[in-house]
């Protein structure tokens, strides 16, 4: 019986292959979870031949139940909406909202064509000055027409990240300081407690006045409206990161701190090698909360100050009061929700990337 | 003999290069502000029809949240110019509210406003409105029909609130004019109390134009005075009834102006001329061939970046009609005038009417001699820039010389009594005498001291 059964080898190999496949699926599963696609895993597993009954149950829970819930929601919306009569007509149902979304897309295409024409004109203008021998008059002129819906979304996303990055740059160092020194903590604490609950709508007038007074460059790098929205976002999204960082830093294992004392680490090494790695999970939880708050705040700030972006889109439509306005506002509501969700998932993904080692 | 030469010149210029007609621009990137109202049409038309492009201008049009933000934008240079209330450059120049030298080389339109009351107020005032043979109310409706309603509110101790768009707006003065003509006190301003509600039967407060219908629907105000399409919007939404248009208050009254800072005009004379040229062409286009282009203009204005209201709502007033109650559509062919009757020429007498109303209601606290009115008007209204731009257009063959009042001294002929609701004629050359002839309001050396008219 020295010769191995070829069939046994084949089945062994198949077994190994299957095992590898399942490891791969399980590994991918952690990513699917990050992006909210966890329902793919049982489908893959079922396809790979795993106990179909158990997988079907999972598919039912992860895919079918949410889909049915969404369908129910749509049905409820479609039946109830027409019953609410406003002065602008009935509240639009899902079909009208969808057709407005398509309309906005068509409008964006028309606007893109207009913009291309505009750029040709600028090109012709510059060419003219080159021919006349006045190259100093050649310049880039930004499109002067109304921004498309996509352009408004992009503006909002840029603004929220700019404000969020400033907030992070302030909150993380201050949070580390507060976490390391109880003295600093008690100094900062009352300020945090008072400013944390302040609404963006209260910050905005102050920010607007200060920016108008200090940022006087006519054609600077940023427009004033951009800075106003971004700084308001900063002021409101600072706090979750700050508090969580301080908390994370303060709760490092006491043994580790003792070790650092034995090794006579200097402050910088202590922070980079010890404090940061062990407090990263909480810092990222704070960042995630901050970005969420920032996104909410931004829309409010844009609405109030008429700064470009999705908030202005909503307010403009409210003021326009045309028969398609309500449906367009609902398109914006869904856009805001979906982008907020994606931002959250993005931060979650980054978090799971960075804190992998810490979780182990 | 002049005309063929001019058109020949224009034709060759176009064939050789459009650049020949262009002025040497000091600045070619400009941002103009506007408020969502149909009378911003000349700006939208100049942009969409390419009249700005023809002048080599790259213009951005930006809707503003309210009149205050818009004025501040022009003062601090964020905006190169704006669609403004006629009272704004005048008030800024004399230092009421904000102090800044703003001028206007171009008047944007005649008429275009209305006064609307909520359904409830309308049902209460309707019994006092005279009817025509067919049962419909007889227009124009005097505020004397509103007077018993206001008195009823006063006897119940309830405030009677109405909205207007800005303290120095045409709408404020029109609403006050209408109320006063019907024997209702709209209240005075004083240097210490700038609410404008001293001794008022009806309390007027500021609401931005596009928010008027929503504010009235919410019950904060019982009526308002605003430009189109926000009166027709109330009809379309079924929440209110426009009782009078400003055309019936004062036939062909001057309305919005295009305002720029004096500094901008001084530093950029050619750019200013180019802008005025484009705007004159836009105004001509809007009134061309008996308003033939109005339908197209309505479509343009209904785009969300301009006025954005429904096409039908904008068309209701822009195409020569006005809908008072649902279904009660009447012809008002001159409701919106953009070019004919020299609508775009900045007459000094128009500025002086606004000054008389500021004096009448105490925004100008002290008596001023007639010569002062003339001086202020001349420092704000700039017909010389307008005529220079018009001349360039005529030379290029783009306008007809007979459409412009080349020899005017800036004063319109006296408005006859029958063109004004209370039958009081207006002569811009004699502002103090005009103030004397108005029954309610400050006159002579009168002043408001501690809520009392003195003198």
Helix-strand blueprint:
The complex is a heterodimer of chains A (360) and B (455).
Chain A: H1 6-34, H2 40-47, H3 52-80, E1 85-86, E2 89-90, H4 94-131, H5 149-180, H6 182-195, H7 200-214, H8 224-250, H9 254-262, H10 267-305, H11 310-320, H12 325-354, H13 356-359
Antiparallel strand pairs in A: 1-2
Helix pairs in contact in A: 1-2, 2-3, 4-12, 5-6, 5-8, 5-10, 7-8, 8-10, 10-11, 10-12, 11-12
Chain B: H1 2-16, E1 29-34, H2 41-48, H3 51-54, E2 58-63, H4 67-75, E3 81-84, H5 87-94, E4 102-107, E5 113-118, H6 119-125, H7 147-155, E6 161-164, H8 170-181, E7 203-206, H9 212-217, E8 223-227, H10 230-237, E9 240-245, H11 246-249, E10 257-261, H12 262-267, H13 269-291, H14 294-301, H15 311-318, E11 321-323, E12 329-331, H16 348-360, H17 370-380, H18 383-395, H19 431-437, E13 447-449, E14 452-454
Characteristic terms for this protein:
heterodimer, A: 360 residues, 13 helices, 79% helix, B: 455 residues, alpha/beta, five-stranded mixed β-sheet, 19 helices
Explained architecture:
The complex is a heterodimer of chains A (360) and B (455). Chain A is an all-alpha fold and 360 residues long. In chain A, 79% of the residues lie in helices and 1% in strands. Chain A contains 13 helices and two strands, in the order αααββαααααααααα. Chain A has helices spanning 6-34, 40-47, 52-80, 94-131, 149-180, 182-195, 200-214, 224-250, 254-262, 267-305, 310-320, 325-354, 356-359, and strands spanning 85-86, 89-90. In chain A, a hairpin with a 2-residue loop joins β1 (85-86) and β2. In chain A, α2 (40-47) packs antiparallel against α3 (52-80) and α8 (224-250) runs antiparallel to α10. The model of chain A has no long low-confidence stretch (mean pLDDT 85). Chain B is α/β, with parallel strands linked by helices. Chain B contains 19 helices and 14 strands. Chain B has helices spanning 2-16, 41-48, 51-54, 67-75, 87-94, 119-125, 147-155, 170-181, 212-217, 230-237, 246-249, 262-267, 269-291, 294-301, 311-318, 348-360, 370-380, 383-395, 431-437, and strands at 29-34, 58-63, 81-84, 102-107, 113-118, 161-164, 203-206, 223-227, 240-245, 257-261, 321-323, 329-331, 447-449, 452-454. The longest helix of chain B is centred in the middle third of the chain and has 23 residues, at 269-291. The model of chain B is unreliable at 1-20 (pLDDT under 50). At the A-B interface, α4 and α11 of A face β2 and α9 of B.
């Amino acid at each position: 019986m020295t010769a191995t059964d070829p069939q046994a080898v084949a089945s062994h190999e198949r077994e190994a292959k299957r095992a590898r496949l399942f490891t791969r699926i399980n590994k991918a599963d952690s990513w699917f979870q990050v992006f909210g696609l966890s329902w793919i895993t049982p489908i893959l597993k079922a396809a790979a031949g795993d106990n179909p009954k158990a997988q079907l149950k999972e598919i039912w829970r992860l895919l079918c139940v949410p889909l049915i819930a969404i369908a129910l929601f749509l049905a409820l919306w479609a039946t109830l909406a027409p019953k609410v009569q406003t002065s602008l007509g009935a509240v639009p149902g899902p079909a009208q909202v969808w057709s407005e979304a398509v309309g906005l897309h068509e409008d964006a295409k028309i606007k893109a064509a207009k913009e291309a024409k505009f750029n040709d004109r600028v090109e012709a203008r510059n060419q003219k000055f080159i021919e006349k021998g006045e190259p100093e008059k050649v310049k880039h002129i930004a499109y002067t027409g109304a921004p498309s819906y996509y352009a408004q979304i992009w503006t909002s996303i840029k603004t929220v990240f700019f404000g969020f990055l400033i907030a992070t740059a302030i909150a993380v160092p201050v949070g580390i300081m507060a976490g390391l020194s109880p003295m600093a903590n008690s100094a900062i604490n009352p300020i945090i407690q008072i400013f944390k609950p302040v609404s963006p709508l209260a910050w905005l007038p102050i920010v607007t006045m200060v920016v108008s007074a200090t940022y006087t460059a006519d054609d600077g790098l940023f427009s004033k409206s951009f800075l106003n929205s971004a700084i308001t976002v900063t002021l409101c999204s600072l706090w979750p990161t700050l508090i969580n960082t301080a908390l994370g830093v303060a709760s490092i294992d006491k043994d580790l701190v003792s070790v650092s004392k034995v090794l006579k680490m200097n402050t910088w090494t202590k922070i980079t090698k010890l404090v940061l790695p062990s407090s990263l999970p909480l810092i990222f939880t704070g960042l995630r909360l901050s970005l969420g708050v920032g996104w909410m705040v931004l829309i409010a700030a844009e609405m109030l100050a008429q700064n470009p972006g999705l908030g202005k889109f909503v307010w403009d439509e409210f003021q326009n009061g045309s028969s398609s306005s309500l449906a367009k506002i609902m398109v914006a509501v869904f856009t805001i929700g979906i982008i907020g969700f994606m931002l959250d998932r993005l931060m979650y993904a980054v978090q799971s990337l960075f804190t992998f080692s810490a979780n182990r | 003999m002049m005309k063929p030469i001019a058109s020949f010149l224009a034709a060759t210029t176009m064939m050789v290069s459009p650049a020949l007609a262009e002025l040497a621009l000091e600045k070619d990137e400009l941002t103009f502000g506007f408020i969502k109202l149909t009378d911003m049409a000349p700006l939208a038309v100049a942009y969409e029809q390419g009249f700005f492009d023809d002048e080599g201008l790259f213009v951005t049009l930006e809707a503003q949240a309210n009149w205050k933000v818009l004025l501040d934008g022009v003062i601090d240079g964020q905006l190169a110019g704006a669609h403004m209330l006629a009272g704004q450059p005048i008030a800024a120049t004399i230092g009421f509210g904000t102090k800044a030298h703003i001028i206007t080389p171009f008047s944007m339109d005649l008429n275009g406003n209305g006064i609307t009351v909520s359904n409830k107020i309308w049902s209460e005032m309707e019994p006092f409105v005279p009817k025509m043979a067919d049962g419909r109310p007889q227009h124009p409706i005097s505020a004397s029909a509103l007077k018993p309603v206001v008195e009823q509110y006063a006897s119940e101790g309830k405030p009677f609130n109405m909205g207007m768009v800005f303290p120095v707006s045409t709408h404020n003065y029109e609403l006050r004019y209408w109320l006063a003509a019907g024997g209702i006190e709209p209240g005075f301003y004083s240097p210490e109390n700038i609410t404008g509600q001293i001794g008022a039967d009806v309390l007027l407060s500021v609401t931005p134009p596009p928010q008027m219908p929503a504010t009235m629907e919410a019950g904060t105000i019982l009526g308002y005075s605003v430009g189109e399409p926000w009166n027709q919007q109330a009809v379309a939404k079924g929440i209110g009834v426009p009782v009078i248009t400003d055309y019936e208050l004062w036939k062909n009254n001057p309305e919005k102006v295009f305002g720029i800072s004096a500094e901008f005009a001084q530093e950029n004379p050619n750019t200013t001329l180019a802008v005025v040229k484009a705007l004159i062409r836009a105004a001509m286009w809007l009134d061309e061939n008996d308003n033939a282009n109005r339908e197209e203009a309505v479509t343009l204005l209904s785009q969300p970046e301009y006025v954005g209201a429904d096409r039908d709502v904008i068309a209701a007033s822009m195409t020569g009609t006005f809908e008072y109650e649902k279904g009660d559509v009447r012809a008002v062919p001159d409701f919106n005038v953009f070019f004919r009757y020299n609508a775009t020429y900045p007459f000094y007498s128009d500025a002086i009417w606004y000054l008389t109303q500021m004096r009448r209601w105490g925004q100008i606290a002290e008596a001023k001699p007639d010569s002062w009115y003339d001086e202020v008007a001349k420092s704000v209204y700039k017909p010389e820039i307008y005529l220079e731009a018009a001349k360039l257009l005529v030379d290029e063959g783009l306008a007809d010389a007979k459409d412009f009042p080349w020899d005017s001294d800036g004063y319109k002929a006296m408005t006859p009594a029958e063109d004004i609701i209370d039958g009081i004629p207006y002569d811009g050359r004699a502002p103090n005498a005009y103030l004397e002839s108005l029954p309610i309001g400050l006159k002579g050396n009168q002043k408001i001291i501690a809520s009392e008219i003195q003198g």
